[in-house]
Amino acid sequence: MKIYFANALFSQAEINYNAQLAAKIRQIDDAIDLYLPQENASINDKQAYADSKMIAQADTEKLLNSDLMIAVLDGLSIDNGVASEIGVAYAKEIPIIGLYTDTRQQGATNQKKLQALTQIAENQFHYVNLYTTGLIKLNGTIVNNEKDLLAAVANYI
After folding, report:
1. One matching Pfam family, short form (predicted)?
2. Any bridge partners for residue 140, and if so which?
3. How far apart are the C-alpha atoms of 14 and 10, rounded to whole Å?
4. Number of domains in the chain
5. pLDDT tier at 48 (50, 70, 90 boundaries)?
6. How many CA atoms lie within 13 A of 2 on its CB side?
7. Residue pair 76/128 in contact by the 8 Å Cβ criterion
8. The domain that contains 101 carries what CATH number?
């Protein structure tokens, strides 16, 4: 099974997290062929050069040849590249598993947090673009922890 892993890859924290999670996904089954864009040095060695067309062509080719996409939705907003890749996967009917671990989603039954929504600039929750998450839900699912992500991947195999 070919899996495309989409997440930001511009900070050391993002690179480390991607590598750690990719290793866990690869351990699920030997049949998994996971594409992690940061491992493609021909376009993502930041000491070298790759223009926008080279990056778009290389990653889109891998995405279009995938059986499943994993999209990390964390951050101030969904990474622009990840959002674009979600659109491509949706249009090509490639199933998508979104991973959204933002801790601000917790406390949905806390009345003080809910009441704060009525006050200007006191949203206690994190917002994720509804169009983009809708594309995922129309062609997959969103989970909020690694354990559920790994189980969802295993279900696709």
Report:
1. Nuc_deoxyrib_tr
2. 96
3. 7
4. 1
5. confident
6. 9
7. no
8. 3.40.50.450
